Amino acid sequence: xxxxxxxxxxxxxxxxxxxxxxxxxxxxxxxxxxxxxxxxxxxxxxxxxxxxxxxxxxxxxxxxxxxxxxxxxxxxxxxxxxxxxxxxxxxxxxxxxxxxxxxxxxxxxxxxxxxxxxxxx
Length: 121
Known about the structure:
Elements (H helix, E strand, L loop, with lengths): L15 H14 L4 H8 L4 E2 H8 L3 H13 L3 E6 L5 E6 L7 H22 L1
Antiparallel strand pairs: 1-3, 2-3
């Protein structure tokens, strides 16, 4: 497989294959909630209401986000045989492939917040 090192060239152009890869990633984990939900689920499986409370997200939006994560093979949904019926969500082994992305985003976000706070104070 050929490695693409053409993120930014002298003419500020971006290689089409790199653009496509970045867009594919954003299509799966982009938006306000998906990586937050994945981060929460890294601590273990959670019930729907637990996720809703912990992420501070409405049930309607949470349901949509979880469906998309499940469709992309990052989350599993288990209906528990309880009264009332409860549903648990857990990460799949495939979700581990996002670990480096999440760690890098955490580090960048931490440094960015520090920089912004320095300039604000």
